[in-house]
From TrEMBL:
Coiled-coil features, chain-numbered ranges: 5-32
InterPro entries registered for this protein in UniProt: TACC_C
Name of the protein this chain belongs to: Transforming acidic coiled-coil-containing protein C-terminal domain-containing protein
Species for this entry: Zophobas morio
One Pfam family cited in the UniProt record for this chain: TACC_C
Length: 150
């Protein structure tokens, strides 16, 4: 019986040793698992950061493309504005020239009206002279004076 007790005590101590060894392995595995979870968490955070940076880079590139398109459109608009400005300046110069020509033609027209009125007056006077045969010499002198005034 003593043998049995000793064997049992030895078995108990062996089992306790095994239990302690298993407990150490469990603790070791838990620590390993915690470290692995920490590594996985860091890896997940790193992937999220890389994806965010990629999105930022894509957004930045897209913004650059939009800015280039906007700059091109603005440049085209500026060129069209410059062309329109030249055309408007041409119209303004033409307007000034046409206004000057109109005033010149109005002056010519007025002088022609005066000449017409004078010639009409002369012809009326000549007809009156011919019709009345009196004072014909006065009419000829008057006509000469009017013609020399032109």
């Amino acid at each position: 019986m003593d043998n049995k007790i000793t064997a049992m005590e030895s078995k108990i101590s062996q089992l306790e040793e095994q239990n302690k060894e298993l407990q150490r392995q469990v603790d070791y595995n838990r620590n390993k698992e915690a470290a692995l979870q920490k590594v996985l968490c860091n890896y997940d955070n790193f992937l999220k950061k890389v994806i965010m940076e990629k999105n930022v880079v894509c957004d930045h590139e897209q913004t650059i493309v939009h800015l280039a398109n906007l700059e091109s459109a603005f440049n085209e608009l500026l060129q069209k504005y410059e062309k329109a400005k030249v055309v408007v300046q041409g119209f303004q110069q033409n307007e000034t020239l046409l206004k000057k020509q109109v005033t010149d033609y109005e002056e010519i027209l007025e002088s022609l009206r005066v000449k017409f009125a004078t010639y009409k007056s002369l012809s009326d006077d000549s007809l009156n002279c011919v019709n009345h045969k009196k004072g014909c010499d006065d009419c000829k002198g008057k006509r000469k004076r009017l013609l020399t005034s032109f």
